[in-house]
Amino acid sequence: MDSEEIPFMVKIEKYIPYLLLMPALLYMIFFIGYPLVQAVGLAFFENGQFTTANLDYLLYSPLSKFWDALKYTLLLAAVIIPIQVSVAFAIALLMNVPFKGHNLAVYSVILPLTISDVAAGLIWYVMLSPNGFFNKLLVSAGIISEPVRFFGAANRDMEFLAIVITEVWRATAIVFVILFAGLQMISREYYEAAEVFGATTWQRFRYIVFPMLLPSLQAALIIRTLFAFQIFGVVWTLAGRDIPVLAGEAYYEQTQLHHPGVASLYALIIALISVLIGYIYTKLFKARYLEA
């Protein structure tokens, strides 16, 4: 009986990797693959026939704000992501040094992560309104004589600034958590060896910290860029359609104009841009020491 069980177990063992991959594979099929196929179907097919009507509407209709949405989405990503990465990097390096109240400081930095994007938008809308805390503080200090107006279609640049401030405050913690975790994983032995050989602070950063933090930086940039192209709640709360963004236009086309095909096209464009940028990040920030 034993001689029959052993070959059977050996035969099963070669399928174990596939069985272990099965949950992830099923997840991708049902929650990514199926919606993706449905989106392509809604965007390019009508009554079983291929059509470019939704694409024509998106690109050429006077009702479409696609080009403005693409411009503002890219602008927001180009402004917000470098600020967040720089700020998060600086805070992570600071928090990597033990000091009194270290844990409290880390929790304080992470706290905005617990607030939803809509709630963050409402908080900053109240703070930056003409009668809000920010204007009252500046008027009381004598820095300005009249409140700064951040909102309204006539103040689009200030609305853009309000969105940047809110996003930096709310989502920098995401980048910080990833970079801080990466710093914590660098062994102290590297620093000690560098000190023995007389390396300066800059040399330790250049030859130890930065190269070993590249995988974490790559992950942080990919995740943050994906979120940047999905930005919606904060923009919708602070500026509505004064500053159109891709995700916001997808929502508007679906819920207000009842154009599911156009909304699906927006979703596909967001996905395509995210994949392209993710691919670029993986090429630019590949950790060389992992290639060996």
From TrEMBL:
> How is this protein annotated for GO cellular component?
plasma membrane
Q: ABC transmembrane type-1 domain: which residues?
A: 70-281
PROSITE patterns xref list: ABC_TM1 (PS50928)
Q: Where are the transmembrane segments?
A: 15-37, 72-97, 104-127, 168-186, 207-239, 259-281
* Keywords on record: Membrane, Transmembrane, Transmembrane helix, Transport
The places in or outside the cell where this protein is found are: Cell membrane; Membrane
Q: What membrane topology is given?
A: Multi-pass membrane protein
Q: Name one GO biological process term.
A: transmembrane transport
Q: Tell me its family.
A: Belongs to the binding-protein-dependent transport system permease family.
Protein name (record): Binding-protein-dependent transport systems inner membrane component
Q: Which organism is it from?
A: Staphylothermus marinus (strain ATCC 43588 / DSM 3639 / JCM 9404 / F1)
